[in-house]
Amino acid sequence: MVKKTQELMQVRLEEGKSDIETLKKTEKKALEVAIAIAHDKAGSIIVVGDTQSYSMHFPNFFHGKKVYIFDKGMVEVLRRLGEIDGALIIAPNGRIMAYGTRLLKQKTMKGKGTRHAAAFGISEEEGVTAILISEEDNNIKIFKKGKLILEINPYSKNIEDNITKIVDLINNPTIAVLAGASVAAPILGITFVPGIIVFTGSYYIAKSLFELLKNFERNFLKRRRLF
């Protein structure tokens, strides 16, 4: 724990707090790794964030080394490491902190197993995004602020081309508020991404539907004037 704390402090002091654009780049690469793992029909968890809530299953090759998810060939390396039992830990600036870890915070998710509980629990930490690759259905679930906010079908057509849009959804304040109902992305007034289910609160659904109806009414009146 002391070594983890010292290393995390070193990341923050030497490299500064990651800005949102760097975080998005890190999440984008993490999703590339997640999709690759899902295509292998394996299960895993990728945690992006400043967290110390994990213990090691294996000696940590990355301890004391500055290795980043952006480095050449690292997506393939992490794809293999992600299939080892345990979670991958990536700092917001892309630095690889650990692999094969046991997450220490868990929160039961009805009808789901320990991997879901671990992703659910760790995502309650401030600024942490947990990406779960489910071995049961091969879907990718994204947790943030203790909520399931997105579910992705990794086999959707051109899903790799839409990763940037998915990362924008992850960091959209409207999406990350609270979970309650599952709806298609267009209902929320968000750019549609094939293969994505968005989970959010009923207040935002009602608000977006109201805007949708207003736009429909506006367009309808315009057409009437034309005739």
Question: What does the model show?
Answer:
- This protein is an alpha+beta fold.
- It has a single domain (2-226), classed as DNA integrity scanning protein, DisA, N-terminal domain (YojJ-like (1), CATH 3.40.1700.
- It has helices at residues 2-15, 20-39, 74-82, 114-122, 163-170, 202-226; strands at 44-48, 54-56, 87-90, 96-103, 129-133, 140-144, 147-152, 181-184, 196-200.
- The protein has a 9-stranded mixed β-sheet with strand order 2-4-3-1-5-6-7-9-8, sandwiched between helices.
- β6 (140-144) and β7 (147-152) form a beta hairpin.
- The N and C termini lie far apart (72 Å).
- 35% of the residues are buried.
Topology, please?
Layout: H1 2-15, H2 20-39, E1 44-48, E2 54-56, H3 74-82, E3 87-90, E4 96-103, H4 114-122, E5 129-133, E6 140-144, E7 147-152, H5 163-170, E8 181-184, E9 196-200, H6 202-226
Helix pairs in contact: 2-3, 2-5
Which key terms come to mind for this protein?
about 230 residues; alpha+beta; YojJ-like (1; 9-stranded mixed beta sheet; 6 helices; 9 strands; about 35% helix; about 20% strand
The fraction of residues assigned to DSSP E strands is: 15-25%
Relevant CATH superfamily: DNA integrity scanning protein, DisA, N-terminal domain
Q: How far apart are the termini?
A: 72 Å
Q: What share of the residues lie within helices?
A: 25-40%
Helix-strand category:
alpha+beta
**CATH fold label:** YojJ-like (1
Radius of gyration: 19 Å
Instruction: Write down the secondary-structure element order.
Output: HHEEHEEHEEEHEEH
Strand order of the largest sheet: 2-4-3-1-5-6-7-9-8
**How many independent structural domains?**
1
Please tally the β strands and state the result. Answer: 9
Low-confidence sequence ranges:
176-192, 200-209
**Biggest sheet overview:** 9 strands, mixed
Shape: globular
Q: How confident overall, as mean pLDDT? A: 78
Alpha plus pi helix count: 6
Per CATH, the architecture is 3-Layer(aba) Sandwich
Look at the structure and give the CATH class: Alpha Beta
